[in-house]
Amino acid sequence: MAMTGVLRPGHAQVRVLDLEEGIKFYRDVMGLVETGRDEHGRVYFKCWDERDHSSYIIREADQAGIDFFGFKVLDEATLDQLEADLQAYGIETRRMPAGDLLETGERVRFTLPSGHEMELYATKTACGNGMSMVNPAPWYDESEKGIAPLRLDHALLYGPNIAEVKKIFTDVLGFFLVERVIGEDGESEAAIWLSCSHKVHDIAFAEYPEPGKLHHCSFLMESWEKVLRAGDIMSMNDVAVDIGPTRHGITRGCTIYAWDPSGNRFETFMGGYQPYPDYEPLTWTFDNFAQGLDYPQRKLHETFLTVVS
Ligand SMILES: [Fe+2]
């Protein structure tokens, strides 16, 4: 087996200003599948093609934003090893008890120098994707409801000390750098795209003075046609759209950015290429970032740089 260590983005917990409004949006417009509610008032969702219990969790709060982002690792032994590796690197970790998140085992929580809460976990109840494990159909009627993404794909987070964050992901957690934007000084990295897999990114960070900010959580669509259909559904439901439909130069992904009713940006995304760990990272210069962001329009959308939750 080639894939070990950190497998994939597993879950994000995001704050919404009005829980009922959030539930309605993520269930009916985004088309996520509700899988549970807990005693803390949190509501759990998964994308229809995900097999684990939950990937997107919302809770009501006075301020929008992200509480934490979690990666699933191969197994409990891997979790123990990565916890020890983080501690040996000088990062304080703490264990969140099994069951604190519904149907989820112990999580190893740590704070990045960017101010983001990250976690690793090995166990989450598999509840399937609604299709048989034997002779499965490719989709089912309900899987076409709303935007209906396939999975939680990645997140872009804004905060300080991105150079330090990169070291933790590449030196400790086994990620590799796929693409980067060089800052105005011509040397430092203003933004980085990191992969733990064959995907063009599993997480990305941009340098930003305020810690712990969410730029977007991204949901994977099956095709460009499905991204356009997502745009139709956004318009039908008066969703505030930020950018797109368009293609990023960076990652080659095809995208729409929009906001949930609380002001958390999300992305409906498809495409990109398949990097390997031996690939040399691609570099975008600061003066050409507009093309990296929006390849056909070559437009440096101000909101991309300044609006976060
Ligand atoms: Fe993205």
TrEMBL record:
Alphabetized GO MF terms:
catechol 2,3-dioxygenase activity; ferrous iron binding
Q: Which CDD domains match?
A: 2_3_CTD_C, 2_3_CTD_N
Instruction: Read off the PROSITE patterns from this record.
Output: EXTRADIOL_DIOXYGENAS, VOC
Give the InterPro entries listed for this entry: Catechol_2-3_dOase (IPR017624), Glyas_Bleomycin-R_OHBP_Dase (IPR029068), Glyas_Fos-R_dOase_dom (IPR004360), VOC_core (IPR037523), Xdiol_ring_cleave_dOase_1/2 (IPR000486), XylE-like_N (IPR054560)
Q: What EC numbers are recorded for this enzyme?
A: 1.13.11.2
Pfam families xref list: Diox-like_N, Glyoxalase
Q: Which UniProt keywords apply?
A: Aromatic hydrocarbons catabolism, Dioxygenase, Iron, Metal-binding, Oxidoreductase, Repeat
The coenzyme or cofactor needed here is: Fe(2+)
Q: Where is the VOC domain?
A: 8-123, 151-271
Catalytic activity line of the entry? catechol + O2 = (2Z,4E)-2-hydroxy-6-oxohexa-2,4-dienoate + H(+)
Q: How does it assemble?
A: Homotetramer.
Q: Which family does it belong to?
A: Belongs to the extradiol ring-cleavage dioxygenase family.
Q: Which NCBIfam families match?
A: catechol_2_3
**Which protein are we looking at?**
Metapyrocatechase
